[in-house]
Amino acid sequence: MSVLGIPILDNLYPATMDMWPIEAKEFNRSWPFYENLKQGRFTTTKCKDCGNVSYPPRVICPQCYSENLEFTDLPKKGKVVVFSEEVKGVPLGFESPLIHAVVDLGVDPVKRLLTRIINCPAGTLKRGDEVQLAVFDIPAIPIEKGKAGTIMAERVFFAFEPVKK
Ligand SMILES: [Zn+2]
């Protein structure tokens, strides 16, 4: 996803939406979330000890503080509960319209999440609309790995997009 018309931001991605800019295995214990995203899976962590499911993915269970977690799939479709749409004056680096929505995934316990909505022309989104997971590549980040030199960490991120009717 590129930034149009602003040379200084060429090939940069506005990372404020990204929970963990460094996705590499060596630096981020939530890296399976991104590996799963690359395969089109939308996942979060489930505690193997108490069964608690929390989103976003954790490294420690917020219920019982166990580190014994596994990744579990979440629905990839949901319905728009409420949304905001910025058309003018969007922050530098973002394309207009900049839409954020609370999406109802229809399952407990991760019933609702706040996400960005992309591939959606201004003025067309409505409450109750069905949206689906959209995974896209974002610019890689160079990571220094000592003697191994610098590697480029492949990166993806996600948003939701309207389901075409
Ligand atoms: Zn637990």
Molecular structure report:
The protein has one helix spanning 31-38; strands at 43-47, 53-54, 69-73, 77-86, 98-104, 112-117, 130-144, 150-162. The chain is mostly beta strands and 165 residues long. The protein has a five-stranded antiparallel β-sheet. Strand 5 (98-104) and strand 6 form a beta hairpin. It is flat, with a radius of gyration of 17 Å. The protein starts with 30 loop residues before the first helix and ends with a strand. Zinc ion is lined by residues 47, 49-50, 52, 61, 63-64, 66.
Question: Can I get a quick summary?
Answer:
The protein is mainly β.
Which consecutive residue ranges, at least 5 long each, have pLDDT under 50?
A: none
Number of strands: 8
What small molecules are bound in this structure? Answer: zinc ion
In the sheet with the most strands, the strands line up as 6-5-4-7-8
Compute the CA-based radius of gyration: 17 Å
| Mean pLDDT value | 87
**Category by helix and strand content:** mainly beta
Strand content range: 35-45%
Report, as a whole number of angstroms, the end-to-end distance. Answer: 24 Å
Helix content: under 10%
Question: What is the ordering of alpha helices and beta strands?
Answer: HEEEEEEEE
How many helices does DSSP assign?
1
The general outline is: flat
What composes the largest sheet?
5 strands, antiparallel
